[in-house]
## 1
Amino acid sequence: MKRSIPLDSYPAGNQLSRDYLAGSARVADWYHHDIRSADWDSRRLAELEQRSFPDRERLAQSILGRMSAWGASPAALEAAASLADPGTYVITTGQQAGLFGGPLYSPLKAMAVILHARRLAQRFPHLKFVPVFGIAAIDSDFEEVRCASLYDRGWELRQLCLEPQPDDDNRIISARDLSAELPALLDALADVLPDSEHGIWTLATLRESYSDGSLVNGFARWMLRIFAGTELVVLDSSDPQYLRCSADLLLRQLEQASQAAALLAGRNSRIREAGYELQVESQAGDLQLFWLDDERRRHKVIVQDGRAALRDNPDGPDSAELLRMAVASPERFVPGALLGPLWQDRMLPNIAWVGGMAEIAYRAQSSALYEFHGLRMAPSFLRSSATLLTERQAQQLDEFGWELTELYRPQHEVEALAVEKLRPQGLDEAVSSYLQTLEGADSTLLDLALRVDPNLDQSFATIRSNILKTADKLEKKITSSLKRHNETITRRAASLHGLANPGNVPQERVAGYASMLARHGESLTGRLLEQLDPLATEHRVLIMD
């Protein structure tokens, strides 16, 4: 089995991202940097040297304070403190605060920025590069984070969920108190994870991480714990100091709302005209900006009659009041998906960004807003993409004679394919031939025997019947054994499918990393880091043993 497959053989992604990663001239203008050039990093450093980051010392202190409260390791705290230094640059990524650490792709993103930082440190030893993971705490999509899918003791995927909340509850994730629900879910998790040393450690770490009822704090503590010893910095995007860093961008977005919205709409049209689908749909007048009320609920800011206004709250602040608050309280505004990258690049000198295929695609839209604000978007790299298997599971794929791509078929096709591949060649033909030969030989022998002695008819009939009964028993025996063989193969194929492509969704998008740690221990993260290449644009198979 190959340990990697090209992205066009992997059931995820989009053509716009693939074209960007391949260096297509069709999309080059939308990304500002060519990451395939040997000196992309030197060029980006030269850009960043021309910019100022006046709030970085206050931001570094705020990040350091939060990470200290979350129990970060000394290496991570030292990295956070270094964010105040002019010679420090960052490599950023981020994700929503998924329950119990979220799906596998969250730690894979963190691994990618850690490895990028290490590579850049070797290339530019006189500078410091810090990997930063931003938690999308300003997101309000509770449905996206309220469930965790984890492999149980039999490698079956089990889902644990917080209770759904009303669709119109637009509070940001960091404002939601779930202390009444989380203890019961953690108790349920004890029946899912293996009752082993590693399973007990994982459960204890999750209990400690999610002790205060906050998904954001729980996610942050968990990430810092599983990446303890690395320099990974975890950032809460709802941190008021973080939001204040982009006050100048916020004010311009509101003061020149019509121009900003028009530029975004124009970019969206050009992307569609080029034959690509938009990853983030936005209506006319969309500013990709939200205002937070006193309950921390998000209200969309749009252009109305040429001025900024709230779309769903006519009794809320008017345009003049929004502008006043943007100056006095910029932390009351949070960016949407397309504006968020600018906030990231404004806070600290961001030499590179790492994300998934969908995120890479929507950065083609975001770059229009960068241009509106006179900035250049950080070079965009694909996050690490992987399926985690044990050595035994990988061997089973080899026994089937499969590549990983075989498991991306629907489960019933995978099962049928497994039975067909491992069914002994020519078995059905051999059984049929045996019976036909026996029948033919029997008829020939009977004809010759009757010529010798017509009285042999009855005796021959008796013996012939016994022979045919014996042959029938043999056929049934073979059929029964084959059925058991097929059932065993089908179970093995279904188990592999459920591991690599559960519910016909790639493992990294649904399965929680916590269930992998519960089997292989806290050293698993370091072992996986040794197997990954941050510059790879392919899907990897990582062996956990």
## 2
Amino acid sequence: MDRNTIIGFSLIFLILAGYYWYTAPTPEQAAQLQRTQDSLAKVEQINAENLKKSESAKMNSSDSTGNSSDSSLATANNNNTAFQQPTREMVVASPEKFKDIVIENNQLSITVAKMGGTISQVKLKEFKRSDSSDLILLDAQKNKMVWQWNDENGNPLSSDQFVWEVAAKTNSSVKLQLKINDSSYIQQSYTLDPKKPYQVDYKLDIVGMERFVRRGNSDFKFNWNATLQKQERDMKWETQNAAIVYKLPDESLTTLTSTEEASEVLKNKVQWVAFKQQYFSSIISSPSDILTDAKLNMGLNKPSDSVDVKPVGIQLFSAYNGEPNRKLDFEFYFGPNQYNTLENVDFGIQEASVERIIPMGWGIFGWVNRGLVLPIFTFLQGLIGNAGIMIMLLTIIIKTMLLPLVYKSYISTAKMRILKPEMDAIKEKHNNDLQKVQAENMALYKKAGVSPLSGCVPMLLQLPILFAMFQFFPHAFELRQKTFLWSHDLSQWDGPYLGFNIPFYGDHVSFFTLLMTASTLIYTHLNNQISGVTGQMKWMGYLMPVIFLGVLNDYASGLTWYYFVSNMITFGQQWAIRKMVDDDKLHKQIAEARKKPVKKSAFQQKMEEAMKVSQARAKKK
């Protein structure tokens, strides 16, 4: 083979390779082709089943119930039903009938499958996944919505057996019909309202179907099964936060989350049900058209799976009693778990409490987050674009509010430090007899006008805010994918992977957590010098920051950045207080307090009077 022949074959190969590359389908086209093939396979399966039923009916009876005088029944597909099912010939002849429909607005792109007439895919246009790809909240290959009912002969039918015809379509709305004739049909309507971001108004109209849906077993069942997809970097947090949340009338929210497979049957009407993820949720709601006995189920995450979070499913029931025109009204929400956004969701339900889907903490911690932290954070968000600076300013505001408590705690600690030599002498005098030591210490506190609790109470009052932040930052949508310094996402841990796992610590390094730990250790050292604490309590103070180093390594870097800034502000406050407070003056105050007679509280006086009365009665006896 000469050189020209080799060159010629090479050019032909390159041209063919380029042609195949240029004409290869896009991922969207490949997905659409796969869905069409799946539909064809389902159609063939349905037709095979129907053919078996038809042959069985002919063998068992010569009287065919399919010979109806109604012309609409003449289109039956050999299965004794008025509903027309698609055949392979129909699909091949009219492929456009099976092409999915897309409606969209600024927030959502909703794909509705003609084969079934239900939502197959949801894309959130304003957000991206952690890998910068499109945020597909519900994937067409892993999301299935189906209506089920019984026809006039008692045959179970489902919406995905049929091709639904488009009755009307705009960019933001679509109506699809399953028709028997012009006056008898089922219609599904989807509308994106610009006044309701992330919401889809959904209606199922059952018109003139009283002759074609079996009486006595006529409830319409809505089955929704989906596999939640990974949206964030950390699969661990995605799995931990995946849950089914629902709201019953006049009750608080209930969350179904488990490390095992879980299911539940609701014996009351449900107002809404949500498939909740860490930062996004898919919710279905109806004020009145969801009956009792709704079924919920949640599967397990496969440890080896890096894409699928958890399979979830619900089955809802809606009543149909043969009305000539029955309308079922629903609302979908596909959007972020952002408190202010969810607070404005309109489901037409009084006190829907959708915003409570975000775990702000129970009891006082939730009150602190909703009443204090969130309003300040929202205010700062309107002024400043940098999330890291917002956290710093939030910390400054909160620490300034807590300054009087810090000052009181410092003064109490300083007084206890001044009394420590006398307390040590008492301890040595009684040779560690705890009862005598405690009694003399209490007498010393009274004379000096010092309360050992006066240093603890201010610290305890700060704890609700400390723990509220622990709950707030890992669930603050406002921090998602917000960069600051070296952190690419303040809602996730910062720093690199190690490539190996350290027990209790993890397989990565969070730099903000290291800074927080170092500053906490320094703060503990300085505080020990002020308080004069010794022994086990001293070393316990150093142990706790090391424990939190492992615990907080997986947490949002925004949280550990807050704790670091809080420690630095505390250093500044204590330095300023130490400059302002004169230990000599504290000595004089304690000395003056000792000269004054110890005042007894009203409770002590009553106890002493009661004891005197008791002693007098004993003497009389």
## 3
Amino acid sequence: MSRITVRMRMYSVFLRSSLAFIIFILVTTVSRAAPRAVEGVLDLADWDFQRDGIVALNGEWEFYGGLFLPPDALDASSLPRTPRLIPVPGSWNGYQDQSGAPMGSDGFATYRLKILLPRTVADSRNPTKDELAIFVPYVNTSYELWVDGDLLAANGRLARSRPEEKPQFRPEIARFRPADRHVDLVLHVSNFHFREGGIPRRLELGTADQIALKQRRLEVTGATLFGANLIMAIFFAGIYALRRENRADGYFSLFLLSIALRMLVTGDHILARVTTELPWEMALKIEYLMDFVSPTIFLFYLRALFPEDVSTLIGRCWTAVAILGGAAVLVLPGRLSSRIIPPYLLLFAAILLYFVYVSFRAVARGRPDSRLFLGGIVATIVASLVTLLRYTGIAAVAELIPMGIFVLVLSQCLFLAVRSARTYQQALTLATENARMLAKTEWQLKKLKEYRRLMTLREEHLRRRIAETLHGRTQGRLFTAIRRIDQAERAMSHDIAAAGAYLTDAKQLLDQVREDDIRSVGRQLHPAAVGAGIVAAIESLLDTFEESYRVHFDVDPDVEAMDQAETGGFHYDLRLGVYRIVEEGLNNISRHAKAQRIRLSLAITHRDSGNYLELTLADDGVGFDPKSPSSGLGLQTIDARVSDLGGHWTLTGSPGKGTTLRVSIPLKPDQPEHPRESRTA
């Protein structure tokens, strides 16, 4: 299975999972409509806790602003005024207190709700009456909860002024067994430390087992998500420590860490369940700081992934906003720093939309794995928007932001994993290619050393042949010439004719030294005929073999045209290399072939979008056995010459049927070309 197929299946699985998650979100919004409190009374006569589950205590509550009324005094006829009504959940800001004055964020009040329970819950004839429980997530910012006159739960210290109040944030479960179907719920609330007073989250009523099970699930879910975020943060921090050049891993690790820290002080408030000593102000500062830090780190992470798609200006502006907001959170008390959060949420919504825009832009531009990234972003935003329905009381849905963040984290982990796998595959491919290139380089270096050895050996052989020529035939001719000159000198006095004959003989010997020996040595050292052209040089070389062999030299007209071109003909290195190749081939024929005929041809061919010089040298000699090919010095020299010119060669033959050497040498792109070549092509 190819890597592309695996990647496409991974995308398919994730997209299907994201679709299922969104469908789950939508399904959870459609449930049986729970009854709402009307004029301070919640009628649950038709509600069945076992069938319908937990019910939210939403609706109109009695509200006594500016008063702490004892539970047993609420039904007294001596109350000065009728109660006002206020929606729960919600803030008391702007509602009137008992004196008719509008309430601000600071203040205190009494809330009351009368609940009519189902008959089966409080039936005295039912010996297995269920124990009920009320879950209170938190209240701004301290409270006491009374049920039928009994104090069952409290947070912080109630007060009528700021110095006396102690805020606290800790979810509580109040358990009770109703005496009858009528339950009187009273809540004393005070707030002097937050921008809004009142009951911001819904209270929930159910059997004690239901409430305990739900809270246990929330605790397990919260702890699992927190642990998963923390572990993944450590994991990606380790990856970044090993590969500092990939900054996306480092930013993602910091983002996960910031999310984990925020989870400690929000939602089910894991930290509050572990310790009661954490000050309310400190928990609020941690939450708000992470609200500014998390999107900033995610923006850096996004820019590290798609640097060409993220605006530098937007990055700088958002960083400035985060720095100013974080500084305000650290310096100001919670009652003031909390006031900057509502306008900040507008900016936060804008940056979320910008994240979506960048994701769509990356997909449109074909960035690798950008669809996987987009899926996580969309799932998180959908979860955030649906959860707002819960906060506003529009729909009774679950707290989905942690799940949305989990989907986001999962998508980013998959995204980074796919990228890491691709990077690893690229590194593996590069390592394989480097190993191949290293092996090729080592082979070329070995060949180069072998070529140098061959050239040195060939040079030594050439020197030896020249020395043999000079010390043998040339030296003998010179000694004979000197001897004839001496004889002519002695004969000058008595026999002029003899002296002239001696001088003529000496002159002939010197001419032989000049014409035969010196020119032969010079041609071996450097063939001057190469300067006149490749055809002329080879013809001069073949002249020395015509006395012993019947030689046929066939030249393609294109070769002659290019060799005589006004632009300079073939490159000098090519002419010299071809000359030496022919020279070695002819020498091999004279040493080993025992041939009578030699056939040499030069032609130009066009293939693979390039021009090649084709050389063929054949003889009718004894041939060779292909099963045991020779690797003598001559063939090694030919191999070195052909390799230097970037060509290739083959040697074919069979016993008794001669040998054929074929050489193909590419002409360089800047090599002059004759117009006839285009016609040939």
## 4
Amino acid sequence: MSAQIHFEVFSRKTPQASWVLQLATEDKETALHTADTLINSLHAAAVRVSREVFNAGTGEFHSYQVMQKGTIAPAGKPARRPVTEPVCTTPQTLYTLPARETIGRLMEDWLRRWRVTPFELLHSPVLAEKLEASGHELQHAIQKLSIPEAQETGQPVHEIIRRWTGLIERAVGRVIEDGRKRRFPEITPETVVAVVQKISGQSDRDYLLGGAVTVWLETAKGAAARLEALLALAGPLIKAGSSCDWAVRVVEIPVCEILAQKGAVADISGTGAEPGMALAALTRLLAGSEISKAAAYDPQIARVLPPVSGALQAYAVWLEVGHFSDVKRQSIRHIISELRGPRRLRPSDAVSEIELLRAMAVVLTMTGGDEAQREDLTSAFVERSRMLVSSTFIDALLQGADDGAEELERLVWLCENVVGISNKREAARWMLTALTGVKFERVMRESHRPVGQKLRQLAGLQQRISGAGLNEKDSQEAHERLGQMGAVMAQEAQVIKQIARTPQPMQRVAALLGFATGQAAPAGPLSDQARAEVMRQLKDPDVRAELSKDGTGLMALKPLLQKIGIGG
């Protein structure tokens, strides 16, 4: 049985007050919007949104924090963890994922300079000696690690520095000594399966294989070459079956770290410096089959997310059949991080940026994943949409538009593609400003295009706004404005009277029905006039007689007649 989920919104009026439940809802967007409204209206000093998951099997609720804003803790000294809390005490703890991520963050410049990953640093005697020789950089990293820990735990900084220094010295010494003793086996794609089977029974098999993989990587230069070198090892291990699964996981670690390095995906895929193109390559890596399915009904998706080649394409093949799950998770984490970041994805082209985000949202939603991952992706796209409705982005989006009509078209398109209640509302505000402005009205009234074309354009805008997911008030306001404008333009051109003078009754009624149903002209006063004229025409015996002669034509008009409430 699937878990029942709802969202709760809490607030407190002052930093010292207790949390008070304000809302419980099954809709996450409603909860987030309520929290934002409370904090922005100054009705709360802090707000919090939590996700409550009910497990029918245990009968218990599990709470997960989704968002928290404002002054989130009462004034006073922060609580400190007990000094007795367990800490890293052995070199092996440095090989865990959290530790490797910390090493990557603290030693980022050093790792970039030597073009290596934390995994390689932890397994390479050569790199260990270089790290040992760079005393000031290592000491600086230890200080950056120790000071926050001292502030949180209350322990003296010098004691924490001494502990971390000793731990790192033991880890470095271990790698250097094992290198001198030649403990790391030599491997090639031809021998890797045999070596893995030989060491699989040893307690430190992951460490030994990690050292062997690092040695194998030393001859590969550049991110693409290193990924290909790792793939050459992973392929035979995957084909060897479940007995080598542990070894595949070891090989997968440096793959994840290489892909996570700044600029690596862009270098590998040759997509250039724009962040968005690297994200497009990652999305293609993760969702090749989903892109093919989506492109069947929207070919633009395949254009926006072009195929990858080389090493990335080879990994995409393995991902497609269920391997390299950590690479998939890491890549999605990277995509989420970039979506939440401050950088424009396509700084040179706002239109292409929206196209990219739309394509990514479609295919990444189709890739599945666990519930938490889907929620994180949704939340990230909502955060990115907040940037799309900023004044800076709007200026970029409207730059180069030919006239007020094209500006409105772009803003309606923005409304269709942003997500999140508050973002939809802000996009609608921009759209309504353009719609009610003099610029759009002038270009529609003064354009030399046939009035029929202009009326169809207004009708199309109405239909798009209806499907854009805006709130009822904004959608209704836009509909009324477009309807009024269409009625004025039609009145000036005497459109209904001209249609009523069409010699052929079938053509006359068909044209009027196009107006009455909102297909050939915007719904509103003009569609009401057209419907009234249809009723008048159908009361004319001569018209009814002519229509009855053309049974096929009359059957074609029947759906339109039913749409305006005529016929059964």
